[in-house]
């Protein structure tokens, strides 16, 4: 049976990140994708590609999740991306309670370019208390890992390991704390922790510049692999390969950063 994954995420119109990226990643990994859009992001070419952010009415988010959960005989895994507002977090929390999906991967997108910092803090706290405890796996980047772990900053691998453990101890069974190329190791380095196994996962770094949509691709690939029955560690290893391929085949348009393309990844 074809595995099915749902992404609860924002639309990023260009196709470089968000729900569009999630669907492409699911497809490339042989997983049927469906969506519940939480917000519409339109990057502004007249204002440094700032995010114009419009939340979707919470009732409409609930409707979309209801549709996905009802149309398909089962949803094997759910990815949660950008939620963006406290009312969105509330409605997603209720849906997770109602449908009790077997696998939930949380990409804890904390701040989005263009969001007010004041609002962002409220959203961070709501994400931590209402969604994080319902996730089976989470994929924070360096900034998000430091925030969720209550650390000042993370500048070394040992600190990243510590952050992964602290986030695990908040009730998330599997944590992939991501540094990517940011710790200067010459590799793309992430730390996996599941309470027993602590693994430093490294692949050759494709570059060091910021890549739009890489984090979405990683979490979506993990979701797809978990939907197919992979273990969390194996899902993380495969997802890093998918991200490397998507960066290697990334597109360079008019934005000052590369954006990912998943379509050249070949399953072996
Ligand atoms: O890459 C984080 C991200 C997630 N979701 C949406 C986005 C972005 C970044 O632009 O727009 C909708």
Automatic annotation (TrEMBL):
Residues 13-252 form the Pyridoxamine kinase/Phosphomethylpyrimidine kinase domain. GO terms for biological process: thiamine biosynthetic process; thiamine diphosphate biosynthetic process. Its EC number is 2.7.1.35. GO terms for cellular component: cytosol. One of its GO terms (molecular function) is phosphomethylpyrimidine kinase activity. InterPro entries: HMP/HMP-P_kinase_dom, PM/HMP-P_kinase-1, Ribokinase-like. It holds the Pfam family Phos_pyr_kin. Keywords: ATP-binding, Kinase, Magnesium, Metal-binding, Nucleotide-binding, Transferase. It catalyses: pyridoxal + ATP = pyridoxal 5'-phosphate + ADP + H(+). Catalyzes the phosphorylation of hydroxymethylpyrimidine phosphate (HMP-P) to HMP-PP, and of HMP to HMP-P. Belongs to the ThiD family. NCBIfam families: HMP-P_kinase (TIGR00097). This is pyridoxal kinase.
């Amino acid at each position: 049976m074809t595995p099915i994954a749902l992404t609860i995420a924002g639309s990023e119109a260009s196709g470089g990140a968000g729900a569009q990226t999630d669907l492409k990643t699911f497809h490339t990994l042989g997983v049927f994708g469906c969506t519940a859009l939480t917000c519409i992001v339109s990057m502004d070419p007249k204002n440094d590609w700032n995010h114009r952010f419009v939340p979707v009415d919470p009732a409409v988010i609930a409707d979309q999740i209801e549709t996905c959960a009802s149309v398909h005989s089962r949803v094997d895994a759910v990815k949660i991306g950008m939620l963006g507002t406290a009312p969105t977090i509330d409605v997603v929390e209720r849906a997770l309670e109602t449908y009790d999906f077997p696998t939930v991967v949380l990409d804890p997108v904390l701040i989005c370019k263009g969001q007010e910092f004041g609002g962002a803090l409220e959203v961070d706290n709501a994400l931590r208390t209402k969604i994080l405890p319902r996730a089976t796996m989470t994929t924070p980047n360096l900034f998000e890992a430091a925030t969720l772990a209550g650390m000042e900053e993370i500048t070394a691998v040992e600190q990243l390991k510590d952050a992964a453990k602290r986030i695990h101890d908040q009730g998330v069974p599997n944590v992939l704390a991501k540094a990517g190329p940011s710790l200067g190791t010459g590799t793309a380095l992430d730390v996996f922790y599941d309470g027993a196994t602590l693994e430093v996962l490294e692949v050759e770094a494709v570059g060091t510049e910021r890549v739009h949509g890489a984090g979405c691709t990683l979490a979506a690939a993990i979701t797809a692999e978990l939907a197919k029955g992979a273990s969390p560690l194996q899902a993380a290893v495969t997802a890093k390969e998918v991200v490397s391929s998507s960066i290697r085949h990334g597109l360079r348009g008019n934005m000052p950063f590369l954006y990912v393309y998943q379509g050249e990844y070949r399953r072996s």
